[in-house]
Amino acid sequence: MSAELRINDRIRVPEVRLVGPNGEQVGIVSIGDALKLAQEADLDLVEVAATARPPVCKLMDYGKYKYESAMKAREARRNQAHTIIKEIKLRPKIDPHDYETKKGHVVRFLKAGDKVKVTIMFRGREQSRPELGFRLLQRLAEDVTDLGFVESQPKQDGRNMIMVIGPHKKKAEAKAERAAARARRGDNVAEPEPAPHE
Q1: What's the first-to-final CA gap in the chain, in angstroms?
Q2: How far is the C-alpha of 191 from the C-alpha of 187, rounded, in Å?
């Protein structure tokens, strides 16, 4: 091994500030001594702060460090909640029963922590009466006001009118609540016994 630690292509340094494997400060040592300590401890000499004067290096098992950081990143991705935008399509002259069904879907999506994009589709002469669609969207927003809020106000987009409703609860909160409810049901409800064979 060389007696210098290469910082970049142009600069070489004769000494570094060394940090031990457990985070303890060793102090400023020559690069040769730092490499010797790394060999004796069977560890790698890793530069952690190149811009400091002198540069800071740490004794560590670099392969283990990379593995642990990859595992932390994977765990963070697994716990990350992805916000999904669900879409519901309505017509301006919707039947009351159909409206209740569509509203039920919106309620279910909001309870699950998803955003809902509500689209009113206009056909033919309905395009000359956008206020019908606007009133329907306002009514839907008022009906689900306890579960969500209007994230983007109704706006005309060609033949359609679009509004986005966001949930009050985050996806992760809704997921945790569902898991807790499932656990409560599992504790209170006994498994049915199998019927005896005759």
Answers
A1: 82
A2: 10
User: Mind giving me the DSSP string for 87-107?
Assistant: EEEE-TT--HHHHHHHHHHHH
Interval 11-36: pLDDT, tens: 467 888 999 888 888 889 988 888 88
Q: Which residues contact 15 (CB under 8 A, 6 or more apart)?
A: 28, 29, 30, 31, 54
What one-letter code names the amino acid at 149?
F
pTM higher than 0.85: no
The closest alpha carbon to 88, from 146, 132, 137, belongs to 137
List of residues 6+ apart from 196 with CB closer than 8 A: none
Tokens of 33: 């001594």
Upstream peptide bond of 54 is cis (omega within 30 degrees of 0)? yes
| Vertex 63 angle, CA 60 and 67, to 5° | 115
| CA distance linking residue 85 with residue 113, whole number of Å | 10
In whole angstroms, give the CA distance from residue 95 to residue 91: 9
Assign 185 to helix, strand or coil. helix
Write out pLDDT tens, residues 145-164.
898 899 889 998 888 999 99
In the block, residue with structure tokens 């500030």: 17
d(CA 160, CA 119): 6
